[in-house]
Every structure is written in structure tokens, then in C-alpha cells.
């Protein structure tokens, strides 16, 4: 396993980060505790040291499973968790206010069975809370010893800059990481967000590197996703946004990219998942890639992508098929590792 340094910090993390959004049984999650523990064991056994979760994943079950899975070996794991999305019905049970963050942190510590979080992340921007309040609250967590480093997720470039400047003005703790979506079918961060991360000292810890399974070759045009698949599970959720999310993930463009990934994989004698992950891992500005296995077999398939070097000719083909018109080239960027 290769280790990288997260942003402008001394924190060493494995290039593969274990995402645990599938752990539990609520929402899109469908990985029971026994399999979750086996996945964590296999990941740590492969020398991964970085695990990502969130207070709202599977209504808290993800953090609870992770906490039990790492019991007795807390010190070898870098735990990243997040707050922002609702963790209760009340108006203060969500967002990035001092009141919610303080409650959310205590709840995460309890569920994870630990007295500190290595990387505490704002899951999304909160337009209803002054960023100065959020950054001062997070700085207090670091000073108290309950949090070691702080990061953000799904922020735009200007939000990253606002947050870092607010921390600097107050002499407080800056973010060291951004957690954005990034894959061969979602390359939007290349235009402004990755350059902003580089300029402002944030490493990029990227999510949905397989586009939720699309790039693993799981889906075909005109065929309804099976009930046992991520997109099939999304389709039966009551929220209309879940159906829109699926439609946005499965279209002629994304399936064309997945088909090219499949061709490259066949030529190299490997899997689509390994090819898609190898591509993301090598992109400039990417510090760590959050994989989202639901089974030990998927974990093993994903780890193969971290030992695979794509031939330059394959990278060119993948780059061409996945490039969208509004994408600005990445220029003058150095990898933050
Ligand atoms: N910050 C955020 O807003 C945010 C949002 C989303 C995710 N995340 C984080 O990022 C992590 C990864 O995201 P993701 O789960 O969307 O990642 P992903 O790798 O794009 O998708 C995971 C899905 O792909 C399929 N899959 C995984 N490995 C496979 C393999 N080897 N072969 C075939 N299919 C495979 C599985 O689908 P099936 O279940 O259909 O088998 C799995 O549920 C999450 O666990 C979470 O920690 C963060």
C-alpha cells in the first residue's frame, strides 16, 4: 500500500481509503455488520489505514460498525467522519452551526467508541451559518484534543477560499482536505476545485470513484438496475431525488465511458473496477481515493486498482472518452503527495 500526505499537514494516509457508506441497512446501505467487520479486517490486513464514515450514514449504523470493527486497534487507523446532514428531526439537528457540530461530534465519538477523530469534515456547505462560526467551532475541537485535523466535502472553489481565509483571519485551524466526487464520469472538479485545493493546502480525498458501480460495468442501456444493485436500491427509495440521481448516472455518455473502461480492462486482463480506480488514483491533485465495497470480494477487486499501472495509451483513450466540453485542462498542477 502506498501512503500519501494529506494536504498541507503531516497526516499520512493510505492511497486507498475505505468508505463505509454501504455499512448497515438504511438508505442505500446493504452490508451487515459481519461482512462490514470482514471488510475492515481485510482492508487493514492489506495495510490500508484510512477509513471514512459519517454521522448520518445508515442512521449512525456505519459509525457503530466501524467502531466495533476497529476495537483494540484504534491507534493504527485514521478515522475520517463528517457532519452536516440531518441526524434528528429538529432545526438544530443539521448544518454547521456551533450547536449542531458540538452535538454531532459527541454522537460520533460515542458511536465510534473513541475519544478523538483524526479528520473531522463538514459534509457540505451550510449557507445558513456564518463560515466564521463553523471554523471557530472546529478550531475549538482541535484545541480540545477531540479532533486532530479538519476538512470539508462538496465545497465549491470559492467556498474553500472563504473557509481558509476565515480560519486565517482568526488565527485558527485551516482545512487540510476536501472530499469531492471524482471519477471518469464526474470530472467537473478539474476546472476550478482541484486547483483551489492545491493553492490553499487541501488534499483531495475523492468519493464515488466507480460512479456508484457504473464504471464497474454493472449496468446496460435500457435494462432496469437489479434490486440487489446500488442503483436498484436507489430506485425504490421514496425521494424523487433518488430517481433523478440514477437517471443522471445512467445515460448514453456514462455508459459509453463504462464501455471503454471495459475494453481497456479486457485488453489488460483485469476488471473494469481496477481500471477505473487506477485512472483516478493517478490523477494530478488526488491524494486518496475512497472506495465503497459492499462485500469482501468487491474490496479485493478494488484493491487491485491500487497495484495497476495503466499504459499511457490507455490513459489517453480514457481521457478522450470521458472529457466533456466544459472541462478546462488541468495545467500547472503538482500532485499533493
Ligand atoms: N462526501 C460525500 O458527499 C460522499 C458521497 C458519497 C460517498 N462518499 C464516500 O465515498 C465512499 C465511496 O463512494 P461510493 O460507495 O459511491 O463508491 P463507488 O466505488 O463509486 O461505488 C460503490 C458501489 O460500486 C459497486 N462496486 C464496488 N466495488 C466493486 C467491484 N469491485 N466490482 C463491482 N462493483 C463494485 C458496488 O455496487 P453494488 O452495491 O450495486 O454492488 C458498490 O456499492 C462512500 O463509502 C463514502 O465513504 C462520500
Structure write-up:
- This protein has helices spanning 33-45, 61-69, 98-112, 131-144, 157-169, 193-200, 230-235, 240-249, 252-268, 272-281, 296-304, 312-322; strands at 3-5, 12-14, 16-19, 50-52, 78-83, 117-122, 147-153, 175-179, 203-206, 286-291.
- The chain is an alpha/beta fold and 337 residues long.
- It has a single domain (3-217, 284-308), classed as NADP-dependent oxidoreductase domain (TIM Barrel, Alpha-Beta Barrel).
- It has an 8-stranded parallel β-barrel, surrounded by 6 helices. The protein has a two-stranded antiparallel sheet with strand order 1-2.
- NADP nicotinamide-adenine-dinucleotide phosphate is lined by residues 19-22, 52, 123, 153-154, 179, 207-213, 216, 218, 229-230, 273, 290-294, 298, 301-302.
Summarize this entry quickly.
With 337 residues, the chain is of the alpha/beta class.
What integer value in Å does the Rg equal? 19 Å
The number of helical elements comes to: 12
Q: Overall 3D geometry?
A: globular
* Cross-sheet strand order for the largest sheet: 3-4-5-6-7-8-9-10
The proportion of residues in beta strands is: 5-15%
Q: Helical amount among residues, as a percent range?
A: 40-55%
User: Architecture, CATH level 2?
Assistant: Alpha-Beta Barrel
Structural class: alpha/beta
Q: What summary fits the major beta sheet?
A: 8 strands, parallel, barrel
Terminal Cα separation, in Å? 14 Å
* Strand elements, count: 10
Secondary-structure element order, as H and E?
Answer: EEEHEHEHEHEHEHEHHHHEHH
Global mean pLDDT: 95
Whole-number tally of structural domains:
1
Unique bound compounds: NADP nicotinamide-adenine-dinucleotide phosphate
CATH-defined topology: TIM Barrel
What is the CATH superfamily? Answer: NADP-dependent oxidoreductase domain
Low-confidence stretches: 328-337
Output the CATH class name.
Alpha Beta
Amino acid at each position: 500500500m502506498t501512503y500519501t500526505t494529506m494536504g498541507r499537514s503531516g497526516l499520512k494516509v493510505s492511497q486507498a481509503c475505505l468508505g463505509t457508506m454501504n455499512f448497515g441497512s438504511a438508505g442505500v446501505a446493504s452490508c451487515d455488520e459481519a461482512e462490514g467487520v470482514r471488510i475492515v479486517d481485510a482492508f487493514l490486513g492489506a495495510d490500508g489505514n484510512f477509513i471514512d464514515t459519517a454521522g448520518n450514514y445508515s442512521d449512525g449504523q456505519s459509525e457503530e460498525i466501524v467502531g466495533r470493527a476497529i476495537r483494540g486497534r484504534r491507534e493504527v487507523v485514521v478515522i475520517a467522519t463528517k457532519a452536516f446532514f440531518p441526524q434528528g428531526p429538529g432545526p438544530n439537528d443539521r448544518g454547521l452551526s456551533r450547536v449542531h457540530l458540538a452535538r454531532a461530534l459527541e454522537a460520533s465519538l460515542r458511536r465510534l467508541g473513541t475519544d478523538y477523530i483524526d479528520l473531522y469534515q463538514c459534509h457540505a456547505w451550510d449557507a445558513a451559518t456564518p463560515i466564521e462560526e463553523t471554523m471557530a467551532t472546529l478550531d475549538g475541537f482541535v484545541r480540545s484534543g477531540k479532533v486532530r485535523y479538519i476538512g470539508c466535502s462538496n465545497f465549491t472553489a470559492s467556498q474553500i477560499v472563504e473557509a481558509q481565509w476565515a480560519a486565517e483571519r482568526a488565527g485558527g485551524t485551516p482545512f487540510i482536505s476536501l472530499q469531492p466526487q471524482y471519477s471518469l464520469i464526474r470530472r467537473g472538479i478539474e476546472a476550478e476545485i482541484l486547483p483551489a485545493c492545491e493553492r490553499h493546502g487541501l488534499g483531495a480525498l475523492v468519493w464515488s470513484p466507480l460512479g456508484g458501480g457504473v464504471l464497474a460495468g454493472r449496468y446496460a442501456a435500457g435494462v432496469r438496475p437489479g434490486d440487489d444493485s446500488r442503483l436498484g436500491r436507489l430506485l425504490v427509495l421514496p425521494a424523487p431525488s433518488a430517481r433523478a440521481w440514477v437517471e443522471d448516472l445512467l445515460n448514453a455518455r456514462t455508459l459509453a465511458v463504462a464501455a471503454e473502461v471495459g475494453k481497456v480492462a479486457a485488453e489488460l486482463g483485469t476488471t473494469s473496477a481496477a481500471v477505473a480506480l487506477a485512472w483516478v488514483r493517478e490523477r494530478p491533485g488526488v491524494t486518496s481515493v475512497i472506495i465503497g465495497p459492499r462485500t469482501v470480494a468487491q474490496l479485493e477487486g478494488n484493491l487491485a486498482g491500487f497495484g495497476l499501472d495503466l499504459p499511457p495509451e490507455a490513459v489517453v483513450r480514457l481521457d478522450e472518452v470521458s472529457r466533456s466540453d466544459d472541462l478546462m485542462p488541468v495545467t500547472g498542477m503538482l500532485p499533493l503527495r
